[in-house]
């Protein structure tokens, strides 16, 4: 089973030079344990998945940390949430950088424990499923666009050769039955499972809480809480509207994107790449894939992804990468033919923004294979989009 180099390795090493504790969080099966054990191969490793170790950490935290006074990688630390309070005392006594790395699959559990106890003492990083450039390191022939979208990026599927439909079915069952079951604000797992499937059908669309609540058959506030669960567990993310006042009638609803398009396809019942070819949501799935690749690239540089979208009267732009005084406007189309209509939204918004003395770049990511320029827009094949800088 190959161990690939992850882009987050360099930011992790940099954080370890500055903080006594570094937290690496992300979705289940994104490769956190492998990354941390590779970067800190000389450190002890302990997993609180083990009942014995979890009991030890909960019942005798002083004794537990005493065994690792020189540092360790502590996996699934949210399973002993009080441990971080005791860890605070340990690192206050000896604040030497790079002693402990904490990992956790459940961002909502780990974040709460860390924020309460280790504020100012911890560097926080997020490891997401591999980006397209990282997946290429597994070797093997490059996938077609449809297969890349349908398979998704969870490492276990790629490094163990597990059929995508099997791996994603098991992943979803584990997520619902194990992770979500422990949450206080999810009491009806059947309704939540239905919500996740309906949310997948809304990937790359603006969030309408009332409509989604009506379809699921739950209250508006319940859907709001459940969307937060999807975000906290890194199944989906919301992209807020770009709010610069360049249009009077501007839509300000966020867009929802599933982080892994393979999981979205599985939730939608798309049984093969060929079935995806003619699916009515193929365009939305591709848009979410593009947004996710940009999102993951930023997260794996150790940065906060600053992604927006834009829609005003007659003008839409799929993605706005906000770099302060520099903006990258992005359109995504899964087809291999570039049509003039794809440029209109970027042109209209870009012209308005440039009047405000902002630097604007325009990029069209598409399902074709020729990289070229057209009318001030860089046209980028889907499988080469990470060859250009997004920071």
Give the secondary structure arrangement, pairings included.
Blueprint: H1 9-16, E1 21-25, H2 32-39, E2 45-47, H3 51-59, H4 61-66, E3 72-75, H5 83-93, E4 100-104, H6 107-117, E5 122-126, H7 132-135, H8 145-151, H9 155-159, H10 164-179, H11 189-200, E6 205-206, H12 209-216, H13 220-232, E7 236-241, E8 255-258, H14 261-267, H15 273-277, H16 282-299, E9 307-312, E10 315-322, E11 326-333, H17 344-354, E12 359-366, E13 372-374, E14 377-381
Parallel strand pairs: 1-4, 1-5, 2-3, 3-4, 7-9, 11-12, 12-14
Antiparallel strand pairs: 6-8, 7-8, 9-10, 10-11, 13-14
Short synopsis of the structure:
With 391 residues, the chain is of the alpha/beta class. It is 41% helix and 18% strand. The strands form two sheets. Strands 6-8-7-9-10-11-12-14-13 form a nine-stranded mixed sheet, sandwiched between helices.
């Amino acid at each position: 089973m190959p161990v690939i180099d992850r882009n987050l390795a360099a930011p992790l090493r940099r954080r370890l030079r500055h903080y006594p504790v570094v937290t690496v969080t992300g979705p289940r099966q994104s490769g956190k344990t492998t990354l941390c054990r590779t970067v800190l191969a000389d450190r002890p490793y302990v997993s609180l998945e083990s009942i014995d170790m979890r009991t030890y950490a909960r019942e005798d935290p002083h004794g537990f940390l005493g065994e690792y006074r020189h540092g360790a990688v502590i996996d699934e630390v949210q399973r002993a949430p009080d441990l971080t309070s005791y860890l605070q005392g340990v690192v206050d006594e000896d604040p030497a950088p790079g002693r402990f790395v904490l990992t956790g699959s459940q961002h909502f559990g780990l974040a709460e424990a860390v924020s309460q106890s280790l504020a100012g003492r911890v560097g926080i990083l997020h490891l997401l499923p591999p980006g397209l450039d990282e997946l290429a390191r597994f070797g093997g022939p490059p996938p077609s666009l449809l297969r890349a979208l349908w398979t998704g990026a969870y490492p276990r599927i790629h490094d163990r050769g597990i059929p995508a439909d099997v791996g994603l079915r098991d992943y979803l069952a584990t997520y619902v039955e194990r992770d979500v079951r422990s949450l206080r604000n999810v009491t009806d797992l059947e309704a939540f499972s239905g919500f996740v499937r309906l949310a997948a059908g809304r990937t790359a669309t603006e969030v309408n809480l009332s409509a989604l609540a009506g379809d699921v058959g739950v209250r508006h506030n319940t859907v709001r809480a459940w969307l937060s669960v999807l975000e906290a567990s890194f199944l989906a993310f919301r992209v807020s509207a770009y709010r610069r006042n360049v249009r009077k009638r501007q839509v300000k609803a966020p867009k929802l994107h599933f982080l892994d398009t393979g999981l979205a396809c599985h939730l939608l019942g798309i049984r093969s790449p060929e079935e995806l070819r003619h699916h009515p949501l193929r365009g939305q799935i591709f848009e979410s894939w593009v947004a996710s690749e940009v999102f993951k690239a930023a997260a794996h540089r150790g940065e906060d992804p600053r992604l927006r979208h834009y829609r005003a009267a007659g003008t839409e732009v799929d993605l706005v990468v906000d770099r302060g005084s520099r903006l990258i406007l992005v359109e995504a189309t899964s087809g291999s033919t570039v049509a003039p209509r794809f440029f209109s939204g970027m042109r209209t918004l870009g012209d308005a923004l440039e009047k405000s003395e902002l630097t604007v770049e325009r990029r069209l990511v598409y399902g074709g294979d020729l990289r070229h320029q057209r009318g001030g827009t860089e046209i980028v094949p889907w499988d080469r989009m990470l060859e250009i800088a997004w920071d």
